[in-house]
Design a protein that fits this description.
single chain, alpha+beta, Ubiquitin-like (UB roll), de novo design (two linked rop proteins), four-stranded mixed beta sheet, 6 strands, flat, disordered C terminus
């Protein structure tokens, strides 16, 4: 709906739903189809080959092909088209025809399965199929298909900050929990990174996250009109729950743990 507002010459801010569901009241209050480009790109194949042919590709619960943009610590980052529900994350990361493996001598520490707003996955999820119901049940999403791989050299506090900074800058400012909360989260994380962290900062991060997305669960609950605010909570919840010692070390010593380095460059499409 923010896109529709922009097309009408207004500020790019979301509309309340209901009543402004695009299919009912969209562009100029007329019914409007709003779909991902990839969804529309599948239409010609379905029309020419038939729905049955499309459904024969992939798994019964996730049919057809899917594009995944993989970035981060892999040998061959890129965009790959794979059948839904058949390929696993491990196959996508390691197969020669896809990413060709993680950087030499390194191992996967964590990966983001579906854009920066998704909850993070870890090595125990590598053999999970690229299947929407399966990933949803595991507590995350395939989302935009933008996957970011982080190996065992990644500074998780810095990685978390970079993603939260993105959401703080992208907030349109309409909703107070998002406008104030994401900025607050970014400032606290930056303070920790700069060596001025306080023992209470980790609890503060979770408290502010709770005010944006009550329960800090998946799928997220939100106190905002659109999901951008809760999206900033995902990296914090994922990183703090799994890598709390890295945050504690930063606060105690003003530097990262030994053996880690600057984080990945967040892919341009990873926010979708």
């Amino acid at each position: 709906t923010a896109l529709i507002e922009s097309l009408e010459g207004e500020r790019g801010m979301p509309r309340l739903k209901p009543p402004f569901f695009p299919a009912v009241k969209g562009l100029y209050m007329q019914p409007t189809i709003v779909n991902n480009v990839e969804t529309l790109a599948n239409v010609p194949y379905i029309v020419t080959s038939g729905g049955s042919e499309f459904k024969s590709i992939g798994a019964p619960t996730s049919t057809g092909m899917r594009m995944f943009a993989v970035s981060g610590h892999v040998k061959k980052p890129g965009v790959f088209e794979v059948p839904n529900g058949v390929t696993t994350f491990r196959m996508l990361f390691e197969a020669p025809e896809y990413c060709g493996g993680v950087r030499e001598g390194r191992s996967v520490k964590a990966f983001i399965p579906g854009g920066a707003s998704a909850m993070w996955f870890f090595p125990e999820h590598l053999d999970m199929a690229l299947d929407k119901p399966t990933v949803d049940k595991a507590g995350s999403m395939l989302g935009s298909g933008a996957i970011v791989v982080m190996d065992d050299t990644t500074d998780m506090v810095a990685a978390c900050w970079r993603i939260v900074r993105f959401f703080a800058r992208e907030s349109c400012g309409k909703c107070t929990p998002c406008r104030e909360g994401t900025t607050w989260l970014e400032r606290v994380l930056k303070r920790i990174l700069d060596g001025h962290g306080r023992p209470e900062d980790i609890d503060l991060l979770m408290e502010v996250s709770e005010s944006i997305s009550p329960g800090i669960a998946w799928p997220p609950r939100q106190t905002t009109i659109c999901p951008l605010g809760p999206s900033a909570v995902s990296p914090i919840a994922s990183a703090v729950r799994r890598f709390r010692p890295e945050f504690d070390h930063y606060i105690a010593h003003g530097r990262p743990i030994d053996g880690v380095e600057s984080p990945f460059a967040v892919a341009a499409a990873s926010h979708a």
